[in-house]
Amino acid sequence: MDKEAFQTDLVQWFQEEQRDLPWRKNNDPYKVWVSEVMLQQTRVDTVIPYYNRFLEKFPTIEAFANADEESILKIWEGLGYYSRVRNLHTAVKEVVADYGGKVPDKKEEISKLKGVGPYTAGAVLSIAYGKPIPAVDGNVMRVLSRILLITDDIARPASRKTFEIAAKGLMYHENPSYFNQALMELGALICTPTSPACLLCPVREHCQAFSKGVQDQLPVKTRKKNTKHEDLLAVVLKNKEGKILINKRPEKGLLANLWEFPNLKVVPLLDKWEILQDFLATEYSIDAVIEHAAFTEVQHVFTHLTWKIDAYEGRVMSGNIKGHESLRFVTEEELEEFAFPVSHQKIWRAYKERAR
DNA sequence: TAGTCGTGGAG
DNA sequence: TCTCCAAGACT
Question: HhH-GPD domain location, by residue (predicted)?
């Protein structure tokens, strides 16, 4: 193919057609980094308000480095993949401590930072520093698989190497930032997973898949997902002062360090209010009275897991949560300050709107 | 390597 | 309603 024509057609299209997005207003390495982490596996429209709020609250790398974990989780609340913000926090603190607050511009250094994988390293280095390093995400693999007729299975981690080599070979050294962004923008707007808009594509003359009419069969992507189902019982428990009992999740695993209403996994068909009462007594030494009917049933779908949560209402008769570090009684007003996963936000909304 | 880790949108 | 996600990284 005519590499130079491909590069200029692609980049010129990007200059004319790129979307007006908040993180494209400047190339500050910290801001580029924040946007790239937020955009991991997350749609642009979802990220925009989070990005604006984030930089309003943490306008500089130092401001974010000095934040406490509760506040960084709260600002990420609802965005998902919460380890991203904890890793970013760890990495930013390291940049402030070891690099004087300047985001490293060397691949070997930036790649050592927590949460910075090959894609994010390439994106930050090219967009913020103009380095000719590929940034291979799902868009780029899809676009290149069609342009170059690459049939490697993009679901296999090993395939990334093939696409990195391809992207490096096509790199537009006059403007690596625009080149990388243009490949992704093309994937987002034109070269979409289903029904790509080839007739609007600025590089269709260079596209092998289009010339053969096989664009709908690329990229090759296998992988089946196994969705588990879990049934949970949760309780919104009030003490005599009207405070609500909440629990901090473990620091590792699903929804790490987020807050939730006390809950337990149950065997289907055996979920009854007695189980909750017994759970509170044996697990937390709390003597409680639980309403006999759930006030809501919440269904929540994760990538590889589904929760069905029956939520009950209850009152504390006696008990002491001292010794249970993860538990806390908070007022309804205070509760709003804690970061909850969406599934438990649903429970809280249903609780406040419940018929009594 | 394959599994883990969220959420809301689109077809 | 159901499937498949969307600018990935970590273990």
Answer: 38-189
